[in-house]
Amino acid sequence: MIRLVLLLLFLPVAALASPIRIKDLVEFDGVRGNDLVGYGLVVGLNGTGDGIRNTPYTEEIMSNLLERLGVNVTGEDFRPKNVAAVFVTATLPPFARSGGRIDVTISAIGDAKSLLGGTLVMTPLNGADGQIYAVAQGTIIAGGVLAEGDAARVVQGVPTAGVIPSGARVEREVEFDFTTVSALRLALRQPDFTTASRIEDAINREFGRTIALMQDAGTVTLDVSRARMASPAHVLGRLENILVEPETRARVVVDQRSGTIVMGSDVRISRVAVAQGNLTLRVEEAPVVVQPNPFSAGETVVVPRSTAGIDKAPGTGLAEIAEGTNLSNIVAGLNALGVAPHDMIDILKSINAAGALHAEFLVQ
């Protein structure tokens, strides 16, 4: 209950926060990363690699690698346990240049038990167009721990996945001439007509002329030529730090697994009355074994013995939640019921079903 109260009480403070920079509210059209993926081999594992019989593709890629290095293994029977086949993924950031470094993520695809201490062998990373944009290699940093013996095994975290910071070198650049761009689009991360209108007004006010135009709730277009600056990069460098106060929808988010409830500052509740209580049905079985007397030639029997009862926990009675003019009133009204977070979720669901919760209700 303490965690719920703290979550809700801190929200009004967040609602009064300073305006946000435009660069934190939008994505610039054309300024985006590209996903890369590769298939490689991790070596140097301490007997925790793939079982070759269960994952024959590991043996195939290892044979191909050794053949490229001049080692002929045709017809050879090898069963190493210190190698594992993996997928390598990365994101090529915008404006990445040849020779730059990017982080990569390594994930086992076979039955390897752990990648801890392994080394990724040189692996090309392909883009969606099939071209090679980077090459990855290096020692893996795995976040999990694996310990096992003959009769017990303990696993903490995910030892079959890890990362290599700056583990890939960029070999090919994405062809994009940013200097020839005459128009740009700003895509809002959270589409909203009010926020888009405020971004338009703030940009035009900063440049002293109309260069921005709101197209819809999620798009604001820029006429770069009207900005009268040296290049589109100069335009973005000037406007991305302009402060705008975003508008958000009234929203209630609940996580049923953890019992977390988060409310926005614009949430409103109509006047309602709520009663809450718990009813527990309890059935206990305590069978009794009855033994026959000595030398009586009787049989041992089991006599069933059951106890049933209904326990009714004290509820809150019928409590009234006044119409919420602000978040503080709603929090005070809900906390007055004195229920646990999971029960609070059920109450909010019922209030929403009654049409008294004026907000978007999201259950995760």
UniProtKB/TrEMBL annotation:
Subcellular location(s) per record: Bacterial flagellum basal body
Entry keyword set: Bacterial flagellum, Cell projection, Cilium, Flagellum, Periplasm, Signal
Keyword Membrane: no
Main localisation: other
GO molecular function ontology, one term from the record: structural molecule activity
GO cellular component: bacterial-type flagellum basal body, distal rod, P ring; outer membrane-bounded periplasmic space
Gene Ontology biological-process annotations: bacterial-type flagellum-dependent cell motility
Similarity comment: family membership: Belongs to the FlgI family.
Entry function: Assembles around the rod to form the L-ring and probably protects the motor/basal body from shearing forces during rotation.
Oligomeric form and interacting partners: The basal body constitutes a major portion of the flagellar organelle and consists of four rings (L,P,S, and M) mounted on a central rod.
Name this protein carries in UniProt: Flagellar P-ring protein
Species of the source: Gemmobacter aquatilis
